[in-house]
Structures are given as C-alpha cells and as structure tokens.
Amino acid sequence: MTIEIQMTTNDGRTVSGSITARTMFRFGVNITAVAGEDFTGQEWADLDTAAGVTRTIYERRDMTFTEDDRYIPRANVGGYEIIDSYGEFHNLLSDWSGPNTNDNIDAFIVQAINIGGGVDGVDGSIPGPTSHSGGDSGVIASKTGFVDAHGNRRLHSDYLGMLIGHELGHYLGLQHTSDAGNLMLPSSGTTDTHLTYNQYKTMIQHGWVEID
C-alpha cells in the first residue's frame, strides 16, 4: 500500500512524497492433534516446527495466522485417528470442528489417511465456510511420521508445514494450479511454497481473514 503525502510550507511551496506501507492480513488456525496421546514429545515439537514453516510461507505473501494448539483424547477419538474414507473425514469435521473457537480454521492432524492414491491431506470445500457447522468446516493432514537413526519418532516438519499450508490455501479459496513451485500444485513438495499476488487477493476476501 502506498500513502501519498503533500504539505504546503509557510512560503507557499508544495512538498510531496510517498510512503510504502506493508499491510499484513491475519486468520486463525486450530491445529488439533487427533489421538493426542499418540504424539510423542518430539512429534509435538516437530508439529510446532511445521506450523512455523506454514506461517513463513504465508508471511512471505503478507499473511499470517494465530495458532491454537489442541488435541482430541484417544478415548474420545472414535476411530478418527486413521481416516479411511471421505465420508469419515466429513464426519470428523461434523463431530469436532469448532468447540470453543472464534472464527478459526480447524486443521486436524491425523495419524494416517488411507483413502488411496497417496492422499496426505483433504479439505472440506473450496472455499471453506465461515461457520463450524456441517461437514466442510476444516481440513486434515496426515502427520507423515518417520523414525530417525536414534529410534525417535519424528515428523517431516518441512513437508507437513507445506501440506498444512496447501490445505489452508484451499479453505481460503485457492484451486490447484500448474505453476511450477506454487504451493497449490496438486502434488506439491517441500520446495513448492510460492503464492502469487492473485492468490493473495483471493485469500484475503475470505470472511475469516482480517487486517492485522
């Protein structure tokens, strides 16, 4: 955003100039671990790192988000820790989206997605609703874990951060693209993190995005 300033001196001269100001937009995200007890301390730390990766992707395009970390206890998860169908995904959103939230997008991190075709993330609708009712209010991402050389369970933070960002992009109104390096490629990887200005203009129109 450019601000034009014009002033008149006491002797009648006109002095003008411009200031370029950066406008940041903000939205909220509930990052919810499904079957939270099944995340190790290291996996929780890696999930926090992944959220930082997502935030960096968006902040490069003058958007950021506030984060509310949550979990669904294993005793209450009802089988949702592993998503086996799109119907089960929508049921997860219907059952768990929105308790005690204020206009935050629900991003559920599940243990695995077994829908087929190498699906690591799913969104409810494009764009997502500005309510927490029904089966479209939220996104899911598989935690895509691995065991490191020391036997510790870890998460691929760079990949998971990109994946969360990709699904949030859908929620904010973005379709898939064929642009090389773009976050919204159908099979985006860790280096596919670019968002265009046109994509930015689409996302800031979502009802849950506001000027920071």
Describe this structure in words.
The longest helix has 19 residues, at about 40-60. The chain has helices spanning about 40-60, 85-95, 155-170, 195-205, and strands spanning about 1-10, 15-20, 25-35, 65-70, 80-85, 105-110, 110-115, 120-125, 140, 145, 155, 210. The mean pLDDT is about 90. The protein contains four helices and twelve strands. With about 210 residues, it is an alpha/beta fold. The chain has a single domain (about 25-195), classed as Collagenase (Catalytic Domain) (3-Layer(aba) Sandwich), CATH 3.40.390. The strands form four sheets. Strands 3, 4, 6, 8, 9 and 12 form a six-stranded mixed β-sheet that branches.
Features:
212 residues, alpha/beta, Collagenase (Catalytic Domain), six-stranded mixed beta sheet, two-stranded antiparallel sheet, 4 helices, elongated
CATH superfamily: Collagenase (Catalytic Domain)
Radius of gyration: 20 Å
Helices, by number, come to: 4
Please, what is the average pLDDT? 91
Specify the structural class: alpha/beta
| Assembly state of the chains shown | single chain
The gross shape turns out to be: elongated
Low-confidence stretches: none
Predict the CATH topology: Collagenase (Catalytic Domain)
| DSSP E strands, number | 12
What is the level-2 CATH architecture name? 3-Layer(aba) Sandwich
SSE pattern: EEEHEEHEEEEEEHHE
Residues in helices, as a percent range: 10-25%
Condensed summary:
It is built from four helices and twelve strands; from the N terminus they run βββαββαββββββααβ. With 212 residues, the chain is α/β, with parallel strands linked by helices.
